[in-house]
Amino acid sequence: MKYILNILLFIALSIPVAVKAQGLVDVKIDSVQILVGEQTGYHISATVKPGQRVVFPQWKPQQQITPGVEVVDAPIIDTVDANDGFIKVSQHLVLTSFEDTLYYIPKQNVRIDNKTLQTNNLALKVLTVEVDTLHPNQFFGPKDVQDNPFLWSEWIELLWLGIAAVVLYILCLLAYIRLKSNKPFKFKVRIVKRIPPHQKALNTIQALKNGGTDRANTEDEVKAYYTALTDALRLYMQDRFGFNAKEMTSAEIISHLKQEEDQSKLQELTSLFETADLVKFAKYTTAISENDRNLVSAIDFINTTKQENVPTEERIEPTITKQQRQTMQARTWLKISIGIMIILATAIIVYVCWQLYDIRA
Description:
Elements: H1 2-14, E1 25-29, E2 33-35, E3 39-48, E4 54-55, E5 64-66, E6 69-71, E7 76-81, E8 87-96, E9 102-105, E10 109-112, E11 115-118, E12 122-127, H2 152-181, E13 190-193, H3 197-210, H4 219-241, H5 250-257, H6 263-281, H7 288-305, E14 313-316, H8 322-360
Helix pairs in contact: 2-8, 3-4, 3-7, 4-6, 4-7, 5-6, 6-7
């Protein structure tokens, strides 16, 4: 009979009735039945007009709202809009209990301005965890943390990505070895000292003069002198005017020059070539004064027709063959490929490490 009365009292008190003292205050509990040590919410609210002052009961953590039922945390107060111009002010508590029994939660006083209103009574049933007292030897402690089973489906993608990164690094190494084994072509630009045509001819004539050949006496000496003098002039004309004077006769040279040069200068040059032809082919004997006069004519012709400000240095660019050019292009593409593979492999490794860290975390 006592057990039945407790049940009836529990049912009567556990119904979350919205009690309104004069239609203003109500109370409710989230769960009327908990296990030992569990928590439940306890809410007191008052519906008032804006501007009215509401004072709830003051509670502190671990203070008992009724013997055996404790308040867990400090109360939380909030306000929301209600219908018809009213507002709803609520106090929220968290309750707990550590003894299994049926608790009676008494009415709570709520002060609105100068009036004190009361909430309804509520009940809280605390249940204990059943313990097997007949078999104390079968008590088992908490289990250790279990490892998740290994699944290939979770790792296969990272495994293949890791293999791909290793393959890319190996390809980079092989490409680097290939690049090192084939030494690049070294092309050097040569700077060659260039003697102007007039200076080259004047140097030859000066050597003739210093050697005393202009004072030649024998037939052979005179022939050698005029041969060297006319060869110097022919080489100068070829470099200066651009025609093949070395392969032309004296008459052809004079005829070609008449189209470009002063006739008075050519007359002296004509006399020089005629004398040289006579010496070389007709065994003509010349006087020293004639040799000097022809020498001066040659120098005068060179000084008159020489080009000023001729570059004294010549830049010789290297000649690149088609095969060398193809080899250079292949080396360039090989370097670009190595760079791309290194970047791609590194990115894959970073992604795999990040995924492993994420899985482990």
